[in-house]
UniProtKB/TrEMBL annotation:
<dbReference type="InterPro" id="IPR041698">
    <property type="entry name" value="Methyltransf_25"/>
</dbReference>
<keyword id="KW-0489">Methyltransferase</keyword>
<keyword id="KW-0808">Transferase</keyword>
<dbReference type="GO" id="GO:0032259">
    <property type="term" value="P:methylation"/>
</dbReference>
<feature type="domain" description="Methyltransferase">
    <location>
        <begin position="60"/>
        <end position="153"/>
    </location>
</feature>
<dbReference type="Pfam" id="PF13649">
    <property type="entry name" value="Methyltransf_25"/>
</dbReference>
<protein>
    <submittedName>
        <fullName>Class I SAM-dependent methyltransferase</fullName>
    </submittedName>
</protein>
<dbReference type="InterPro" id="IPR029063">
    <property type="entry name" value="SAM-dependent_MTases_sf"/>
</dbReference>
<dbReference type="GO" id="GO:0008168">
    <property type="term" value="F:methyltransferase activity"/>
</dbReference>
Length: 242
C-alpha cells in the first residue's frame, strides 16, 4: 500500500492516536506517498470534465491537503486559486511544492466548517475529505460551501461507487470503520475518519437542502459496473439561490 518513501507503521500509529489536525501535521511530509492521496487518474479525469464546462474565474480547493487538487483548479481557473486546510503541516508541504504555470495560488489555514470568505468563488472542489466529517456536521459543511460561492457557482467532488455488500472491499471498509469507532470510544482526542459515513443518498439530500441543484457526471475513464452504472461520478452541485 505504501511506497518506500511513505510512513512506517509506527508513524501511522502516532497519527491515528492523535487528533485529526495533529495527525495530518505528522503525516504531511510523507502524505503524497500514501494511498490516502487522491490518485492522479481521478484528478486528471476531474480536470478533463471541468475543462468541458469552464473556464472559471476563481477556485477554492476545500480541505486541500498538500495541494494536489489545487493543480486541478489551476487548469480551469483564470484569476486565482485558493487552497484551504486546517493542518498547518499539510499547508507547509503544499507551499513548498513546485507547481505548473497558472493563476496565483493562495493558502489559507481554516476549518471547512467556518470558512473565512464571502461569496467570492465560482468553483469549489474537494477530493477525499468527507470521511473526516460526522453526519451531523455535513449540513454545516454544505452551508459553508454555499456561502462562499457566487450565484451559479459550482461545488464539485468525485465519488466512487460503493462496494457491493459481501465483497472483500466492503468488508475491509466496514472493518476499518469498526476499528475507528472502538478507538474513538476508548481514546481521546478522537480521530474522525470513516469510509462509510458519507452515504450517497444523504449527501444529495443535504446538498438540495443547502440550496444546490445537483447533477451527476459519469467519469467515463473508469468504465462501468456490471449493472451499467458508472464506477466513478463527479458530483456537480450548482448554487441556485441569490
Amino acid at each position: 500500500m505504501f511506497s518506500p518513501e511513505g510512513p512506517r507503521l509506527r508513524e501511522l500509529a502516532a497519527q491515528v492516536l492523535s487528533s485529526v489536525e495533529r495527525g495530518y501535521d505528522l503525516l504531511a511530509p510523507k502524505f503524497d506517498h500514501t494511498p490516502f492521496r487522491t490518485p492522479d487518474s481521478v484528478l486528471d479525469a476531474t480536470a478533463s470534465a471541468l475543462r468541458r464546462t469552464g473556464p472559471f474565474d476563481t477556485g477554492l480547493d476545500l480541505c486541500c491537503g498538500t495541494g494536489a487538487g489545487v493543480d486541478v483548479l489551476s487548469q480551469v481557473c483564470r484569476e486565482s486559486v485558493t487552497g484551504v486546510d486546517f493542518s498547518a503541516g499539510m499547508l507547509s508541504v503544499a507551499r513548498q511544492r513546485v507547481r505548473p504555470p497558472g493563476p496565483p495560488v493562495n493558502w489559507v489555514r481554516a476549518d471547512a466548517r467556518a470558512l473565512p470568505f464571502g461569496p467570492v468563488f465560482d468553483l469549489v472542489a474537494s477530493f477525499g475529505a468527507f470521511g473526516h466529517f460526522l453526519p451531523r456536521e455535513v449540513p454545516v459543511l454544505f452551508a459553508q460551501v454555499h456561502s462562499v460561492l457566487r450565484p451559479g457557482g459550482r461545488f464539485v467532488f468525485p465519488v466512487v461507487a460503493p462496494p457491493r455488500p459481501g465483497s472483500l472491499t466492503y468488508g475491509m471498509l466496514l472493518g476499518f470503520d469498526a476499528v475507528m469507532r472502538v478507538r474513538n470510544a476508548v481514546w481521546r482526542p478522537s480521530f474522525v475518519m470513516y469510509y462509510r459515513a458519507f452515504r450517497f443518498g444523504d449527501m444529495r439530500r443535504e446538498l438540495n437542502r443547502a440550496g444546490f441543484r445537483v447533477e451527476l457526471w459519469a467519469l467515463t475513464e473508469f468504465g462501468r459496473r456490471r449493472d451499467d452504472s458508472p464506477k466513478v461520478r463527479l458530483v456537480v452541485a450548482e448554487r441556485t439561490e441569490a
